[in-house]
Amino acid sequence: MVENRPFLTFVAHAVLIAGVVVVAFPLWVTFVASTLTYEQIANVPMPLWPGDQFLANYGQVLTAGSTKGSAAPVSTMLFNSLVMAVVVAVGKICISIVSAFAVVYFRFPLRRFIFWMIFVTLMLPIEVRIIPTFKVASDLGILDSYLGLTLPLIASATATFLFRQFFMTIPDELAEAARIDGAGPMRFFVDVVLPLSRTNVAALFVILFIFGWNQYLWPLLITGQESMYTVVIGIKRMIVGGDAATEWQLVMATAMLALMPPAAVVILMQKWFVKGLVETEK
Amino acid sequence: MADIRLQGVKKSYTKGILVIHGVDAVIADGEFIVIVGPSGCGKSTLLRMIAGLETITEGEISIGGKVVNQVEPKDRNIAMVFQNYALYPHMSVYDNMSYGLRIRGFSKPDIETRVQRAAKILELGPFLARKPRELSGGQRQRVAMGRAIVREPAAFLFDEPLSNLDAKLRVQMRLEIQKLHRELGTTSIFVTHDQVEAMTLADRMIVMNAGVVEQVGAPMAVYDAPASLFVAGFIGSPAMNFLPGSVRDGRVDVGDGHLIALPQPLLERAPAQVTVGIRPEHLVACAEGDDAFTFPVETIEALGADSMVHGKVGATPLVARVEGHAAPAIGSTARFALMPGRLHFFDTVTGRRLVP
Predict the structure, then answer these.
(1) Rg (CA), chain B
(2) What value of ipTM does the predicted structure carry?
(3) Do the domain assignments include residue A108?
(4) DSSP, residue by residue, B23-36
(5) Residues of B in contact with A191 (CB under 8 A)
(6) What total of structural domains would you count in chain A?
(7) Which of A64-73, A177-186, A189-198, B288-297 has the lowest mean pLDDT?
(8) Is residue A180 in some structural domain?
């Protein structure tokens, strides 16, 4: 146990507050910059109090986009990002929970080998296999489509592994009791395994949603038309050439908008998320 | 309701290494059978084979006259109660109990009456809406039994159901299981490592050791005439005293100058090495006598009603049961006579009982 001494309390708080400031200050600057005019940002030092351009800046990026670089409206990009993040997260969870179920509860030839094959892919970063994946996507003709944006990212060794580890903590007797009760494998999966995995699914959804939302390299390769851009790419495309050409207030507004959905997911699912990470219900 | 027959049932996990060495048993309809043995003796494996959770390597198991070797657990018409209860954690008590019925397509009103009836028998009425984690150990155990009862199966299989409960609750649940069996009269097989549970619950018990059935019989019959050294040592607490010795002139020399006469029928065919067994309660304190065992008292275990007197004859430890307050002082010399007719003789080499 940590002793309750005023000095320690003070030090602990000081460290925590310093940490919060370090994380929060850049966000504040981003927000402030998104409410200023271009000229105000260009001034040194930049003001640290919000200006009056909030509605103007956000209105412009949402409906029209930047005038330089990428010209697609950010609302389209947000939608693309949302589709991509949701489909990737849901797809990953669906596929991995079923494969983990197969690996844990069924005895089939080469079961261990297959599990280890899945596991080994964990060791390959996306960058290693990105060229072959692009070739396959291109041959399938799914460039510049939602399918191309999501499908290649759906297979997930990490999620399979996590679900496998969780399933192995479910007592065997539960499966046996269900067998005696007359539940077939799929019935057992739907009635027992899925409800027990609820919190894990929620935690994983949060992680995978953010993973999908933050994807940069893959969308950059697979999309050519501005209408298919995700918001992460959109930000990058708005930054053109030298400092002078970039409309920083719009870039910052877009960044703030890009920040909102992942933050919302984390905040809304926080309770489940924490539960899923720390607690196993047995 | 059904009888259960096991014929030459064997089990091996890796080729050639048997964990169950051919079990034959006939369990009559409505009988309460307890399979008892130390951990690792194969008793749970045997039960799981009857349940259909383990494959049968060799032999035949039939329930109600039908061979079930290839039958799925759900079609064997049995219900099982697990040691860790195996309740579905996310379902209410009611849903836990009715799950099997719902899968089998029973009608809603039918399920309702069955669950209510089981809840009444087990006094679970007030808890039907709760989740398992909101229940105490004893209540969870009752829910697990309720889940078995609602199915009205041909047989109940209990896999060490009381091991996770504290001592007091265990006694209480033991009585409840007894009562339940009287009311329902369903064939039951109960696996335990606790010989007290075996003695108190069983109509007949099957004593197992290392995958082999050592003895089958009514509890008192097994207690009075254990078929082997293993059974003699396993059933009864504290365990039977064993005095190994060699036979000379129709008497067993158990060391320290003590000679125990063999009973008449054994004189002719006794092996060279014989172990004499006597239960602690059959050592009676006596004043004087030629055949008395005298030994210094090493330890006293006072249990209230009884006291256990520990000592050694030669190198052999000996325990005697005396009335609670009649225990001699530690260090004093105790003198005990062997109660005639209560001696057990075993072949030291084979471990089998020598039947007079």
Answers:
(1) 24
(2) 0.82
(3) yes
(4) EEEEE-TT-EEEEE
(5) 88, 99
(6) 1
(7) A64-73
(8) yes
